[in-house]
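Field: COMPLEX_INPUT
Field: COMPONENT_COUNT = two
Field: RESIDUE_TOTAL = 495
Field: MODE = joint
Values follow.
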Amino acid sequence: MLVTFEPGVLLVVIAAGAVLAVTSGTGTATARTVIALAPVAASIVVIQSLAPAVCRPDCTPAATVGPLTIYDEGLSRALVFVTRLVAMEVVALPLLATTHPADLFAALRRIGLPYQVALLLSLSLQLVPILRRELDAVLAAHRARGFRGRGLGALAPALVPVVAGSFERMTTLVLALEARALGAGGTRTSFRRVELGPVGVVACVAALVGCLAGVGLAVARGPAPPLSIAFPPAVAVAIVLGSLAVFVLVLARAGRALTAG
Amino acid sequence: MTADAAKPSVATPAVRHGPPPTALIVALVPLAVAVNFLANSLVALLGLPIYLDTIGTFLAAALLGPWWGALAGVLTNVVGAFPNGVANLLFAPVNVAAALVWGYGIRRLGLGQAVLGFFGLAVVVGVVTGVLATPIVLLVFGGATGHPSDLITATLASFGIERAALVSSVVTSVPDKVIAGYAGLAITAALPVAVASRAVLPEAPGTRRLAIALGGIVVGVILAAVAVLALPPG
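Field: COMPLEX_OUTPUT
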């Protein structure tokens, strides 16, 4: 996805990813993640459509709103960037949503990932929700004592006790792991067993070949000429104003948080 | 924690050199990853115009070594891919660079010994990571990331999207790393002395160290405010 700007290819990838998401029962999670890209998409549309980098100085104006001129080339490129991002997420999310992290790490260990790294990854993934719960408890304790930290002022008082407490918890955990021969030599075994059957091999080879073919094709064809879709003025204005509204909301929230500290 | 941190330490133990024990690595690296993730989630929750995804990277790089910090950085982006999407993975080299600069700066060059050196190192980390993030932001996101720093990019876009993205990235990255560094310093003050003494950090035992850390955070806040608010929309 990262080597092409061709909307046709990207739309095919999105369609394939959508089918994958629906058939694997992860459609809702995938849709949620795609919706979460809205602020990024809004920023891309605003910046690219108002100040396109690919066509200067011969950009084609699509519409004018007050002092702002929207250009076809910028808006087209912005939509391609958004499509690329969506394609990347839609294809990867079903894998992440349907695979238990431990299975993923066990599979990676089979292709050479050191078990120490897999262990650190597993511990990190387990620690995140624990720390999040502790952070909630600390913030609740702050509130109970009348401390209502906002903005940057809330960060250090919330983080430091959580980390200090967690370090003790981790030390206990490590003692338990050492008692179970952490760091000892020899072949490590795992409770998780990931078998690589014929279907898996075919899928891996197909993915690898597809990836290499895609990169090769993109390199052979060279950089694509700047895409320029002739947007009806009303459509261009609607897309950019909608994006601008999201963009301004993000900025307003940041401004409030910064001044609240 | 405040009470413990506020206790004046009777004697500062000598800095512990040599490779870190496995137990410490297994305890500290996941903690660093979780801290990175948690702080980043917290600033997103508060809507702050910074990232703070390198506090744990700083801790691992300073207390364990640059390459352990780099591992913590990579793992942060891998862990972040599960809830936030795979685009997170593309920023792993930035976290690695932060760890290497911090780790070698503190442990090899001794830049963490004085307050000024520590501040300067945080600024260098900010510049390096800001520059490194720029091509990723341009190639993958077209210069925008949905972060409040996009205001700077949008304002300067008429100078060229590449230059605007570079300025925006560096200007937000520097205060971010200063805040992250000093927040990390505040955390080391709350860690057991045997762990905290693995790195030479600004000499400020007890409350003084916390005061310096908080002073650094205030400086970072001011820089962040300047970065986001000083440039009006174009």
